[in-house]
Amino acid sequence: MEEFRAKKCFGQNFLINKHIQEKIVNLGNIEGQDVIEIGPGQGALTYLMIDKVKKLTCYEIDRDLHQKLTKEIKNKNVEIKLQDFLEAELPNSKYIVIGNIPYNITSDILFKLIDNSENISKAVLMVQKEVAERITAKANSKEYGKLTVSLNYIGECKLEFIVKANNFNPAPKVDSAIISITFNKELEYPKYEFLKFVKNLFQYKRKTLINNLINVYSKNSLIEALNKLNLDLNVRAETLDLEVIKQLYKLLN
């Protein structure tokens, strides 16, 4: 493969450690499955997946990289699209998502996965270490928030391992982490209604739970719900774990 210079405008950092590349692919359990790859880059993961998957669809936004990959890869089970993953209409069938995703659009990508969670069986993603810690955070920690609760309501999230910056070219300023999200949960409550509730709950970090929800529910119903859960009336959302938040949602809706 020819050498390719990373472009800052696309937030490109190419993973060059072969062992880590193989670990990522193995975590996906991709054998015989339809797979979507976000940002194939120079094809490090792509080449490892071609012979294992049923179909591989890659979304690449860099015209030069897209041209390089379409020139090199002629396999019939691989489609390389010159398209922003965030703008793509994803298939209405089961698939696995793999990707070393640009850190500047990580949250947007994660919320797109949430939107399409019914069709995703699993996602294995390279993200900034700090984001991985937010996704897997425990209640009462500074990393815990809307993203934590939203993703863990939809799926089972796991920080698989840390990837040091020196495994990339060019090396980013921070370490990365591989996370896996298994989207196989039966949701207890309607997805978008619950996620809207979570968004309101964490709207202002410095405000109490009652003050964050007062425009949606009456003060009396909020006080009654908190009393039933034996929670202080000045409680803040970041102190409540997912199970308590689900109980609160049930009492208020």
From TrEMBL:
GO terms for molecular function: 16S rRNA (adenine(1518)-N(6)/adenine(1519)-N(6))-dimethyltransferase activity; RNA binding. It is found in: Cytoplasm. Gene3D superfamilies: Ribosomal RNA adenine dimethylase-like, domain 2, Vaccinia Virus protein VP39. The keyword RNA-binding applies. It is an enzyme of class 2 (transferase). S-adenosyl-L-methionine binds at residues 13, 15, 39, 60, 84, 100. GO terms for cellular component: cytosol. It holds the Pfam family RrnaAD. The keyword Methyltransferase applies. Keywords: Cytoplasm, Methyltransferase, RNA-binding, rRNA processing, S-adenosyl-L-methionine, Transferase. It catalyses: adenosine(1518)/adenosine(1519) in 16S rRNA + 4 S-adenosyl-L-methionine = N(6)-dimethyladenosine(1518)/N(6)-dimethyladenosine(1519) in 16S rRNA + 4 S-adenosyl-L-homocysteine + 4 H(+). InterPro entries: KsgA/Erm, rRNA_Ade_diMease-like_C, rRNA_Ade_Mease_Trfase_CS, rRNA_Ade_methylase_Trfase_N, rRNA_adenine_dimethylase, SAM-dependent_MTases_sf. Its EC number is 2.1.1.182. Specifically dimethylates two adjacent adenosines (A1518 and A1519) in the loop of a conserved hairpin near the 3'-end of 16S rRNA in the 30S particle. May play a critical role in biogenesis of 30S subunits. Belongs to the class I-like SAM-binding methyltransferase superfamily. rRNA adenine N(6)-methyltransferase family. RsmA subfamily. This is Ribosomal RNA small subunit methyltransferase A.
